Structures are given as C-alpha cells and as structure tokens.
Amino acid sequence: MNTSRDTHERAQREFQTVYQENLGVIYRYVYSKVGVREEAEDLTAQIFMKAARDIDVARGPHSMQKWLFQVAQTTVADYWRRYYRTPVSSLDALLESGWEGPVETEPIASLSTTPTERVHALLRLLPDHHREVLTCRFLLHLSIKETALALNLTEANVKVLQFRALKRAAELEPLVKEKS
Amino acid sequence: MADEEQERFEDYLELERYIADLQAGKVARPPTDMTPEQAQVYQAAALFRSADPEDVEPSAEFAERLKAQLLAIQDEATQANPAERVAVERKNVKPLRFFSRRSLLAGGAVAAAAFVVGAGAERVREQAQAQDKAAVVPSITAHLEISTTIPTTWHFVATLAELGQGAVRFTSDALIGYVVRDSATQEVIALSGACTHMGCILTWQDADRRFHCPCHTATFAETGTHIAANYKYSLPPLPRLHTKIEAGKVYVEVPT
After folding, report:
1. Which residues of A touch B78 (CB under 8 A)?
2. How many angstroms separate the CA atoms of B80 and B68, rounded?
3. In the prediction, which pLDDT does B53 show?
C-alpha cells in the first residue's frame, strides 16, 4: 500500500542520493562565490539543511536538484546582499542605487564548470596588464611587493591595477558564461 | 553603461585587505555599505581566489558532519506528531558535533555552538510504539559539553530571588550568557548569549521573553530555539550550559 509515509521515505532516500551527488558541485559553486573555506562550508550546510527541511516540496530527484541549486543561488545572493549599502527590502531602492535587475538563473551547466576554468577563461579575455597583475596575485600568490618588482611598478600602482583588473573581470564574467 | 564611479584611495586599500585575508585563508569580510558595482569587484576577487586548487573541494570531515546533521533532520521529520516534546535520556549516545566557527566576541569570549544531536531518537520511537502512544519528537537541543580534560568551575550568576521570572546575564572569561527560567516548565536553564549567526551578544527583552540580536535582528525563544519567521536563515539553537542550584543560588559551569 503506498502510504504518504512511503512517499516521504522515498523522498528522503532520494535526497540522500542528491546530497552525495551534489555536495561537490554546490560546495565548489559556493566557494567560488565567497572565496573562504569556512564561509563556503557554513553556507553549503545551510543550503542542504534548508533543502532537507523542505524535502516534500520537491518531487523526484531531478526537481530536487533544481530546487537545491535555486536555494544555493539565493543563499549566496543573500550573503553578498548583507554588505550592500541600501537596505534590500525595496526593489526600487536597489534599482536606484544602480543594480540592474535580478540576475538570470544560471543554467545548471555553468554550475559545474570549475572556478579554475572560469578564471582562466576570464584571464584570456583581459588586456595584458590586467591579466598579468591578476596572474601574479592569484595564480602565483605573489605579494604586492613581489608583484611590483615583477611588473616594474610601484606598490601603489599594483593596488590600483588589481582593483581595476578585478572590476574589468567582473564586467566580463557574463560573457564567459554565455560562451560555455 | 553606468558612469565610472570615483575611485577613492580607500577602495584600493580595502580591496587589498580583503585579498590579503583571502590569501591567508582567513575569513575575509568585504566592507559593508558597498554599491553593487563595488560588490562585483569583491566577488571577482573571491572567484579568483577560489581558482587555487587548495580548498576547492569540501573536506571529508565536513562532508561526514553535514551528512550526519541531515540524517538527524530527516529523523526528526519522520516522527509523527511533532507537536509533543519529551526530555530524552541520552545514555549510551555518541554525540555528533558541528562546531560553528563564528568566533571572537568583544572581551575575548568564544562562541562555541556545539551542536549535539540527540541520537536517542531511535530509542524514543521504539518506546513510543511499544506504548502505543503518539510518537514523540525530541527537540534538537544543543549542549555545550566542555572537554573533560579542561578544568571547570561553577560561576555564580544570581540568587533565585533575583532571577525571578526574568533572565540574568552573566559574563566570564570564556562564556557570556543568560540564566533564565523557562516559563513553561519553570526549569532554570542557562544559555550561551552569542547569536549563532555571527556571534553578537544577544539582549533579553522581558516584553516578549525573547533574545534579540543587535546585529541582524535574529530572535531566539527563552529556551534558545531560533525563531525563524521573517528571517532568511535557520539558525542553530543557543547552546545550553550546565547549571546547578545550591542554597537558592544559581551557578553555571564555565572553564576556569
């Protein structure tokens, strides 16, 4: 007899499978958005725990995975929103402050490109001087001082350059997603 | 395209501070008060940081801990009649711990959200079935279990008379918290006073008998449970501390 308890138990088993199969993807995605292991772990835990509690909302493993990714996206967006200037209660206030509207839901495929792949794709799109400073700082782990020496710049220049390089990279990121 | 924002010297310095923290593996906090354009720069920094192969996979330890927590949530969900609660004996139970790494409050106290899952759920279910009663759900209470190798002492907080029906805050080197009388059971309990979100010290309001967080508006019931309405996240409950009452005085167990 197919009771609601059976359905519930089956949903739980499916969720456990979804957990096993998606922990890596979700963690990597979150980590690429926050850059710190501890924060990534905390947010990942929140995402799965929220999904586990709302388990009956989703039906079947595929829609559970979709639900999980949606929760991941909103959780990450919430994390960053905390640092924004305007209180985020009003959409108008956000738009006024220069926000360009809700981010389109990332296609699930892009959630499985690794951060390394995305970074390298971005580096290829950047002009030379931006690419060099970001390569020095993030791929070679050079300090400001070492980067200044390597690129024959002052330390102050390096700080300005890395800011502008990251800003440019941020502007280019939507292009990378479209290509992949 | 939006007008170029005036770049200020502080912008470069703040960004460098953030990148330095990221590289050091520390919890890096962007400045508050950012515009969306500024935020994008920091998000790009986080992305570039994450290209480093170190830390890019979840640790096995983390994966196991989270799995255990999820199973506990699922166990809780399968109990019928979640409205009833019963104190669960925790004999012969191996506690599972999830330590939040939120730390460092003013004064040097550390918020340890030790999350002990009552694995007596199985036993309770069997008992309930045997007695043919509605199955009961142990609420997931979190107890701070100080390591047995660490010397502790009983820290005096207040007399029962002073406590009355309200809550009294106490401060010690390692712990800041509250002693409160649970109005439902009249039991005197002690709780860590650190919000399980980011560690800010909560304030008690007599009016609604709840703890309020001054940083992000989280609220907790007098028993330490997070009240999730109108709040983005589910937070762990406030850890309970061990208390004793001797000669009308309330003490809480703290590390010496």
Report:
1. 5, 8-9, 12
2. 21
3. 78
